[in-house]
């Protein structure tokens, strides 16, 4: 199964649209990684200025390899001006079930 990374980002008020454009402009840095299975950007409906980024990886070791790379540091620098606070949670996907609408 996949290794999943969940980022929670609190943004500088009023910079949400800029952040979304910057995220989209740099998204291929992540999705272009050989071990990346995909990523998603979501905006909280409950908390103003809070976004979640989910990315799935083939395994933890390959994610950690990317996390320590110069590419990752450069990518983070581009998003950092929009961020006030954030956190990262990692997990292993145990089961994946497709819904009826799929």
From TrEMBL:
GO terms for molecular function: monooxygenase activity. The keyword Metal-binding does not apply. Keywords: Monooxygenase, Oxidoreductase. The keyword Lyase does not apply. It comes from the Bacteria. InterPro entries: ABM_dom, Dimeric_a/b-barrel. Residues 3-91 form the ABM domain. This is Antibiotic biosynthesis monooxygenase. It comes from Nonomuraea zeae. The lineage of its organism: Bacteria, Bacillati, Actinomycetota, Actinomycetes, Streptosporangiales.
